[in-house]
Amino acid sequence: MKNLRAIIELSQDIIGLQELERSAEILSQRIRDLYGIQYVGLFSVENEQHLSLLHGSGLGKDEITNIKLLSWWEDIANEVLSTRKVVIISGDLARQRFEGGFASALGLPLFSSHGLKGIIVMLCDSDSFCPGDISDELVVMSMPLTAEIVSAELYARLEELFLSTILALASAVDAKHPYTRGHSERVTRYSMAIAQEMEMDKSAFKDLRISALLHDVGKIGISENVLDKNGKLTDDEYDMIKQHPSIGARIVGKIVNSEKIVPGILDHHERYDGKGYPNGKKGEEISLFGRIIAVADTFDAMTSTRAYRKALPFQIAVEEIVYNSGYQFDPKIVKFFVQAYEKNKDIWQRENIIYSAI
Length: 358
Ligand SMILES: [Fe+2]
Fold this sequence. Notes:
CATH class of the largest domain: Mainly Alpha
Bound molecules: fe (ii) ion
Order of helices and strands: HHEEHEHEEHHHHHHHHHH
Structural class: alpha+beta
Helix content: 40-55%
Shape: elongated
Number of strands: 5
Strand content: 5-15%
Distance between the termini: 68 Å
């Protein structure tokens, strides 16, 4: 295998990268460098049947070329998917099929012990005729990508399991108090609507979801007698309640290793003017997630019926949040909150259930 060195280097670059699209881009770049093939499409295969394009090199010339390239890649990939074999197209067949644009094409299945995991598709013009004899070499070169696809799948499954556990935990906390049913999920929905307006990146968005779902998890550690108390709380009881962000941060800190999730939980009762709890942080000392969840949490509290008063109409609650901009809330977050509210009022609709004052 003459390209052994290149294959070793490629493996070192890809294995453990945990970014499928980037791994596919690196592989496609090496295929281009080693074999001079410009048009490479790399697909992952989900559940042995769903194709998804990880990277396509040669795209971007113009829209018509892109559409044609994508549909040819997809056709060949679908052929590999149904036959589970190497597909080689050349000669007249290739000229006809690719409207004279390409002289040959190669489609390669990438297998793991879990089945078909990926497909490489190459389109070659007459100068870089797709050589069938490099297919074994290409499969070996693609092994790190195949391994990354398998580990991404396992990771996604673990993440799903983790999220469903978190969801169960959040609803258990909400259910602990008769007035808070659905609170964590609504606060999550509102937080994510704000984050969408901020164009938050995908990974932060996922973390925000977990942080918002778990923001009140620390209530698990607060006595039900205090949480459910109907009358006025004593100072000691209020001090106990004020511990729930720190308790929550401690619990979640043991499960997740994230620089964002835990501070979001810890800071969700901090105020922009420094008068919040548990640490009296001020302005941007308060984590971004904490500042977002604070707005979402307060909006849900205001639009929920409490033991001593009815829910506020949505518009009044929005005005109240705006009124408190710069005092209780970060003005930047309030701006995104208002934009999100104006854009899609459906997100903020809710069944009218009772919510506690906490
Ligand atoms: Fe809270």
